[in-house]
Amino acid sequence: MRIRTFDEYQLAYQKSIEDPEEFWAEVAQEFQWRKPWTKTLQWNFNEPNIKWFIGGKLNITENCLDRHLATKGDQPAIIWEPNDPNEAGATLTYRMLHDQVCRFANVLKRNGVVKGDRVCIYMPMVPELAIAVLACARIGAVHSVVFGGFSAQSIADRINDAQCKVVVTADGAYRGNKEIPLKSTVDDALIGCPGVQKVIVLTRTRTPVSMLKGRDIWWEQELKQVTADCPAEEMDAEDMLFILYTSGSTGKPKGVVHTCGGYMVYAAYTFQNVFQYEENQVHFCTADIGWITGHSYIVYGPLACGATSVIFEGTPTYPDNGRFWDITDKLKVNILYTAPTAIRSLMSFGLDKVNNHDLSSLQVLGSVGEPINEEAWHWYDDNIGKNRCPIVDTWWQTETGGILISPLAGITKTKPTYATLPLPGIQPILVDEAGKEIEGNGVSGNLCMKFPWPGILRTTYGDHKRCRQTYFATYPGLYFTGDGCLRDEDGYYRITGRVDDVLNVSGHRIGTAEVENAINMHTGVVESAVVGYPHDIKGQGIYAYVITDQMPADHDADLMKRDILATVTRVIGPIAKPDKIQFVTGLPKTRSGKIMRRILRKIAEGDTNSLGDTSTLLDPAVVDDIKSGAL
Ligand code: WTA
């Protein structure tokens, strides 16, 4: 499965197009299957109905853990770096990780979790988070990890949508100089979740927490009751492995479903080839396991390849802005995979903290989550990679399971801001608004995929129709990514950003409708419209236009804004807080009542001279009012 030269890439790509089934069957054969599959692929993009490795039986944890014990039992699987650099970290070898996963899997079983049950995980970035994830996979339970930055309300919505039976959490979390009360947030969430039977609580911060008799139990106590013997559950390749909620253009986040066989093959294949992972390298992905990047490139991809994966609990700027470089130096990191927003933020501090660390262990740099601007790309290349580490700008999505378009490190010639070329098995196509293919090079359009790859989502949990509507109905016969894209003269792809109502704020996906719903819940708010605008560090900032029943007097306006922020934090979480709130008396609507977001975007961008045609508006005067009050 390993590609080592550009010629090999071209050959592999060719083969993957001519005979996809044979291509992926060869890749999949490198894994450990309990029973081989009988048919490699069956698909249509209309229902959609996508199945890979049909009839194959496996357990992903046997591939991520057991398989390595004989040869790599004593090699580090996970290196944990705590929030506070003065606290002792931890190294878990493959043997230790296997042992702990089996033990925790037995804890889950003891508490009534069986194959197919959903388990919500809301935890800090500690090894136990990966252990909980893998323990679910071990017994065939479906994990739904919720990022620690989401509110009680968001947790409750996700728990109820997935009908989770058990929640795994911790007393609290450390992030920078903050202590975050996870368990109390879960307690608030569970007021609205009657289906949850057990809450397993890890001790991390020793914050006082309420522990309800019969429902809440301590991780540490439970571990005393179990052995380390837990045979892996035999799973069908198409059994559900996990659900991960992500934002779309409608108000309610969707539970993206990935299955055992295809996801494993794809996460491992892309990890190996994109990063050109070599034995014994230390891989540091700075994402949170609460996002897809953490699922695929902290947990499953690296472990399936027997790599050493770093789990970092803290933030890039604590205790100071040199923390990534400190970790790189200390752990001799070889592959660093981070987001443009982190790079831009660290850039702004200058080079002092970069230059007093030894970064010579670095061999490959990666970028993910949002378009990387040219300045950040060069800063990363010059100052972190010292112009000797290839940068892989990896484009993909929660729905794709793994990277789809990216250079292969050191193999594909890179070009700043370009994700470059599709990986083997990936067939991108650009279409215009009407769905017509835009052929040739030097063109741009909406990015779609013509053919499935093993890591593609199978459904959205509990609502297959929504999956079809969102991804497969816009352009019949194609998977629509929601991204705009440019293909240059050399056939290189550059992702230009979302073409739907989805924002990308600091690499986090947030739906404008979700934020609007939250703002509209605030007392006195009549209506709101949310758009993105370019933000130097975050990539995009959130700009909210809000109509209230009474225009707040100036001295109240500031307080009302802060109140609205508090409501958004309560409903979604701090990551969705608008950067700017403008109170307005009306919104630019067409005669049919549709908000013309194009105009609002322009004003938010500060580009008020070219608002285009406003004659179709119900009340064109609204625009002047908004312009005059723009922030
Ligand atoms: C954006 C994150 C440009 C894109 C893995 C996509 C990118 C959305 C890149 C998915 C990149 C991700 N260049 N844009 N290298 N990577 N995106 O689901 O808009 O959190 O649709 O998955 O992030 O975000 P998600």
What is the strand and helix layout of this fold?
Layout: H1 6-18, H2 20-28, E1 39-44, E2 49-54, E3 57-58, H3 60-72, E4 76-81, E5 90-93, H4 94-110, E6 118-122, H5 127-139, E7 142-145, H6 152-162, E8 166-170, E9 173-175, E10 178-180, H7 182-190, E11 198-202, E12 216-218, H8 219-223, E13 235-236, E14 240-246, E15 254-259, H9 260-274, E16 282-285, H10 292-304, E17 308-312, H11 323-331, E18 335-338, H12 340-347, H13 352-355, E19 364-368, H14 374-384, E20 391-394, E21 428-431, E22 443-449, E23 459-460, H15 464-472, E24 479-487, E25 493-498, E26 502-505, E27 508-511, H16 512-520, E28 525-535, E29 539-548, H17 554-571, E30 580-583, H18 597-605, H19 621-628
Parallel strand pairs: 4-17, 6-7, 6-8, 7-14, 8-11, 11-12, 16-17, 16-18, 18-19, 19-20, 29-30
Antiparallel strand pairs: 1-2, 3-13, 4-5, 9-10, 14-15, 15-23, 21-22, 22-24, 24-25, 26-27, 28-29
Bound molecules: 5'-O-[(S)-ethoxy(hydroxy)phosphoryl]adenosine.
Strand arrangement within the widest β-sheet reads: 12-11-8-6-7-14-15-23
Structural shape: globular
The molecules bound to the chains, other than polymers, are:
5'-O-[(S)-ethoxy(hydroxy)phosphoryl]adenosine
Helix fraction, binned, reads 25-40%
The biggest sheet, with number of strands, parallel, antiparallel or mixed sense and barrel status, is:
8 strands, mixed
- The strand count comes to 30
Strand content: 15-25%
Please tell me the overall pLDDT. Answer: 96
N-end to C-end Cα span:
53 Å
Low-confidence stretches: none
Given the helix and strand composition, which structural class is it?
alpha/beta
What's the gyration radius in Å? 24 Å
Compute the number of helices: 19
